[in-house]
Amino acid sequence: MDTFVQQLINGLTIGAIYALIALGYTMVYGILRLINFAHGDVYMVGAFVGYGLATMLGFSAGPSLLGLGVVLISSMVICALLGMAIEFFAYRPIRKYARMTTLITAIGVSLLIENTFVAWLGAAPKAFPQLLLEQSYTLFGNAAISKSQILIFVVSVVLMLLLQWIIFRTKVGTAMRAVSFNLNSAKLMGINTNAIISFTFALGSGLAAAGGVLTAQYNPQIDPLMGIITGLKAFVAAVLGGIGNVPGAVLGGLLIGIAETFVVGYGQNVGIPTTFRDAVAFAILILVLLFRPTGLLGSTVQEKV
Amino acid sequence: MPILVKRLIAALVIVLLLLAMSQYMSDEGLFGFGVPPYYARVIMLAGINVILAVSLNLITGFTGQFSIGHVGFMAVGAYSSAYLTVYHAQVWERSLAGLVGGNLAHALIFLFAILVGALVAAIAGLIVGIPSLRLRGDYLAIVTLGFAEIIRIVILNIDKVGGATGFTVPGYTNFFWVGGFAIITILIVYNIVHSDIGRALISIREDELAAEAMGINTTRYKVLSFAISSALAGMAGVLFGHYTQFLSTNDFQFIRSFEIIIMIVLGGMGSLTGSVFGAIVITLLPEALRRLPGDLSQYRLVVYSALLILIMLTRPQGLLGTREFGLSWLKRARRQPEGSSTVAGNKGVPIAEQAGPATIDRTKELENR
Predict the structure, then answer these.
(1) Distance, in angstroms, between B200 CA and closest chain A CA?
(2) Which pTM value belongs to this model?
(3) Does B74 share its domain with B164?
(4) SS3 assignment for A265-301
(5) Is residue A126 part of a domain?
(6) How many domains, in total, are found in chain B?
(7) What is the pLDDT of residues A26-72, one digit of tens each?
(8) What's the number of domains chain A is made of?
(9) In chain A, where do the E strands start and end?
(10) How confident is the model over B65-87, as pLDDT tens digits?
């Protein structure tokens, strides 16, 4: 029973990270119908910016909650700017072009970011400084939950509630929902769609950066290629929940996290080797796209001629 | 001379040329002439990339289905044929050699391995394609990527073909095979594209709903082109595996799929000559980067991605777009189009009144194509 709870805790931890990244995917898809392949790399950049800031500002000397807070917020801000830059330079000029063109461009941007970091910093993993005094608490018997896991839960919940507030209680959020419903009508209503799109990218990238810093704190090895697989899994999470649907992204993220942990944890008894960890998300994707392509919380959209 | 005889003679000439070239590029050289092994290697890799690019162009460029899992089928072809050549080929070759002689037996075994690789890859293509091809562009891309990763992870876990440590494979490939199959691939895709099937595929690319409304069974054609494309990729995989003589799943990662995509994007996604051109350029690019001062070769992938973004921003149709570069282009350039005002000569003279051939010679008509 305690293994179950332990697996659940670990699964929810990873799931929370996937949820943060999936929110970015789903928001961008909602307004632009574009799968932002580069989003996973914004997560990676967030972790590295956090690493850079922590070493530069001298927080790497010892654990410091203030340091973590500063690093987290600054990384989110910097990556929000990065997200806006990506949108402005790479996606805005081609917004009117064919879907395949935007897809290829997105892949290009993703690879550009990854390989620039590899060329600049080397592919070897770096160690993220421990900004949190690591401590394990026991829960329900033998299940252990560490401080960084609690941090991940707390921060992700706070960020998601913040996002929910922004989307449903502010004018900007209403504008975002309008743009995702129908871009041209929103323009006719006087909404500055370019600004809203930039803002959406900024929000999504900020969340991804938060995910990056939190993951780096939990799992201190960071390398420039860490964004690819995590980004893809987060995309699967967004699709699972219904792409374009914000609560769906959260649900999808948590489900993928739990599924992955359980398959790896219990799969050994059934003969599934642990190397299949990454294949779990893809298998779920294929199943979702075959049987319920609009996702768990999505609604069917008729394809109009 | 009837067409068939002409084509047989052409085929024979090509076969002899290929044999000569492959002898020229091998270690012994041809009558004392040879190429340094480095150049031979680049040419072989370019040939294999041509097959990959042309096959991917069939499904992505001509049918409009964006597949980024092409390397998965290459892997399937490579590993299935490798299983054959490593575990069974020696026995078969010995028994066959008794019948037809050593060299021919060697060649026939390899031909069989290539066909098996292509067949298994085609089956993989069917398995991947049938459920996936109902999905729209973005989702199809992710699903094909997912399938390619799953294929790679599954192969990684099969110990009989080496698993994580890699698989040593006998060397069968030489330029004869690579060049021969490159030509065969181009011929296959060319013939498909310039046929009824090709028109159906292009119509699916242009507007799938309209094609469906016109009565074209889009699913059938999409799956067909996907299977053929995978089979050709499998063939490339066989050639690749038996050239490098060592198979490791690291060679079949997503980045390789991306390299093939950039080949066809660079050349133009609906153009056969474009994809050949793109394949050659992208094969030569790392070598060119190595020559530049300073160690720029680590920036290879940065250059690729920047190049891709640049192409998409400035000329998304690639170098040749959907046009082909060939003799007909040169001929058309000479014959003035009707009503074109920028070209000197037959200004505005309707085509019917332009001087044309006195008689229509049927055989000449077919040759001019």
Answers:
(1) 19
(2) 0.82
(3) yes
(4) HHHHHHCCCHHHHHHHHHHHHHHHHHHCCCCCCCCCC
(5) yes
(6) 2
(7) 999 888 888 898 999 999 999 999 988 888 877 766 677 788 888 89
(8) 1
(9) 126-127, 136-139, 143-146, 221-222
(10) 889 889 999 999 999 998 888 88
Diameter over CA atoms, chain B? 72
Which of A169-183, A236-250, B147-161, B216-230 has the lowest average pLDDT? B147-161
In a domain, B357, yes or no: no
Answer whether residue B148 is part of any domain. yes
Strand locations in B132-181 (E): 167-168
Q: State the complex-level ipTM.
A: 0.79
pLDDT at A239 exceeding the cut of 80: yes
Lookup: tokens for A65:
């909650």
Residues of chain A found within 8 Å of residue B132, distances taken between Cβ atoms = 286, 289
Mean pLDDT of the region B16-45: 77
Q: Quick one: tokens of A226?
A: 């860490």
Are B122 and B153 part of one and the same domain? yes
Locate B3 and state its tokens. Answer: 């067409």
Q: Which domain holds residue B151?
A: 47-253
Tell me whether residue A296 is in a domain: no
Residue B320 within a domain: no
Q: Could you tell me which chain B residue has the CA closest to the CA of A235?
A: B142
Tell me which chain A residue has its CA closest to the CA of residue B209. Answer: A305
Segment B176-197, tens digit of pLDDT: 889 999 999 999 999 999 999 9
